[in-house]
Amino acid sequence: MSTIAPQAPAPRVARKEATDRRSSAQRSPLGVRVGVVTALAVVALLWLAPLLWALDTSLKLESETTAVPPQWIPESGFTLEAYRSVLASDDLITWFVNSTVISVAVTLLTVLVSALAAYGFSRCEFRGRGVLLALTVAGIMVPPQILIVPLYRQMIAMGLVDTYWGVILPQLVAPAMVFILKKFFDGIPRELEEAARVDGAGSFRIFWQIVLPLSRSILAAVAIFVFIGAWNNFLWPFIVTSNPDLMTLPVGLVTVQSTFGVRYAQVMAAAILAGLPLIIVFMLFQRQIIRGVATTGLGGQ
Amino acid sequence: MATTTIQTTPPALVPGQPPRARKGRSLATNRGGFWFVLPFFVVYAVFLLWPVVYGLGMSFFDTSLARPESDFVGLANYRELLGDPLVWRTLGHTLLFTVMSTIPLVLVALLMALLVQTGVRGQWLWRFSFFAPFLMPVATVVLIWQWLFQYDFGFINATLGQLGLEPVGWLTTEEMAIASVVILTVWWTVGFNFLLYLSALQAIPESLYEAAALDGAGGWRRLVSITLPLLSRTTGLVIVLQVLASLKVFDQIYILFGGGGGPDGAAAPLLQYVYDTGFVSYRLGYASAISYMFFALIIVFSLGQLWLSNRRGTSQKGGAA
Q: Which residue ranges traverse the bilayer (chain B) (predicted)?
C-alpha cells in the first residue's frame, strides 16, 4: 500500500537516460546487438501478426477469407466491401456514439469527483476524515465483479436498467484514483495556497485555480486510465443493457455478433473499427499514455 | 491565529516530493473539506458500500430474480456451495488459469522490457507492438482470436499445416480450452506489465552500470548482479497485481466460448458460475454467497501478500542496520 509509483518523472531526465542507454548499447559488441534486435523483431512480429491478419482479413472479399492455404494477398485484390456493409447498418454507429458518450461522461465525472475528494482528504480537516479515508482505501480491494448481483437489483429498484445513467453511475467510483490524486496533492507545497488565502481566495477557488493547473500531468494520467477502462468495460454494460440501441461497442459486438454469421471479413472489420479509436489516441500520445499507465498502474496498490 | 513556517530553503515545485509533516493548522488547511469529499462519498456509498452490504445480506436469503419476495435461509446458501461440485470445478479453472497465466505474463513482460531497455533503434515500434493489444476492447481481442483459433481456416492451424503439423482443436477440445485462453490473455495484457517493468528499469541509475563496467563486469554479469536484484520489488508488485487480475477472469472466457465456458464447460471460471447462477438461473441469493466466497479468497490473498511483504521489508531493514 505504501508504494506509489515514481510520480511523473521529469520527461527530460527520462529522455537523457534513454540516450545514455543507447550509447552504452552501442558500446556492446556487435553480436549482442544483432541478437537483441533479432529477438525484438521476432517478439514484435508475434505480437503484431494477429492484428495484421485481422486487418488483412477485413480487406478481403468474403469468399476469399477462407482460402486454404491462407493468403496474405488475395487473388482478386483488396476491397473495402466489408467495411461498407458493416457501416451500412446503423448498429455499429449507434454503439460507437453510445461508447463515446458513456466513456467521456465517465471520465469527466470520475476525474472531477475524485479530484475534489482527494483535495479534501489532502488539505482539509473535518470530522470523520479518518474513517472516510480508510473506507476509500478499503474500497480499492473490492473486485467490481462481486457487486454485479446486488448492483443489478439496485438498478431495477432505481429504474436505471437500460439507461445511460445505469451504465455510467456505478463506474464513477474509483477509490484507487482518489488515493493516487491525494498522494500527488500531498506533495504540492502549500505556500502558494497560503498566499492565495491571504489574498482572500476561498477553498474552492484555490482548488480550481491553483491546485488543478499544477496537477495537469497527473490528471491527464488518471483521465487516460479511466477512459481506457470505460471504453473497454464489458461486464457491467453487458449486464445492465439489453436494448441494442443503448449498448456500447464491446457489448453490441458480442451480443449481436450472430448477425454477422460466419462472415469473417465483416466480423474483422467491425472488431477493428471498435479497437481503432484507442489505437489512434495511443499513436498520438504514446509518451503521455505510457507514463500515465506506469504511474496509475502502480499507484493502485 | 494561523502559523506560517518560514523555511530556510525555498520549496521546489516538484510534484511527488514527500509530504511535509505539518503540526497545527496552517492557512492552507481548509475548512469545508467535507463538501469536497461529499460527491465522491455519495457515489461511493450508493454504488460500492451499499451493494457490498446488500450483497452480503442477500447471501442469507433465497432471493430470486423470478419472484419479488424472499425468505431468510441463514447459512443454507453457504452450506450448499460447499457441496456444489460446480463451485469447486469452476474455482479449479480459475486457479489453474491464474497460475498458467501469471508465469508467462511476468516472464515475457520482463524479457520484453529488458530487450527494449537496451536502447536499440525502433523504440516507438517495439513499445507500440507490445502495448497496443492492451488498449483493445475485450470484444475486439476475442473476435480476432476466435478467427485465429478457427479449426478449418484459422491462421494458426494453417501455419501449423504448412509446417507439416496436425491441426489443434484450440477451442474445441477440453485439454486446449484453458491454454487457448492463456495465449489470448498473454497477448492481450502483457503490455501493461511490460510498461511497469520498463519504468522500473529506467529508474536504475546508469552510474551503477558504469561502476560495474569499470570493475570488468560483462553484460550478463551486470544483468544478473544489478538489474535483476534491483527489479525484485517490481517483480513482487507485478506478480501480486497479476494474480489479482487473473483471479477475476471472466470477460474473455465468456465471450470466447459464447457463454458456454468451453467444450463441456472445461474453461468456465468461478465468476462465470456466479453470472450463470444469478442471471441465467435467477438465483441471486446463491450467486451472492458464491461471490462472497470469492471475495474472501481475494482478501485472504491480499492480506497474505501484505503480511509477507511487510515481513520481508522489516527483515531487510534489520539486515542492513
A: 32-53, 95-116, 128-148, 176-198, 289-308
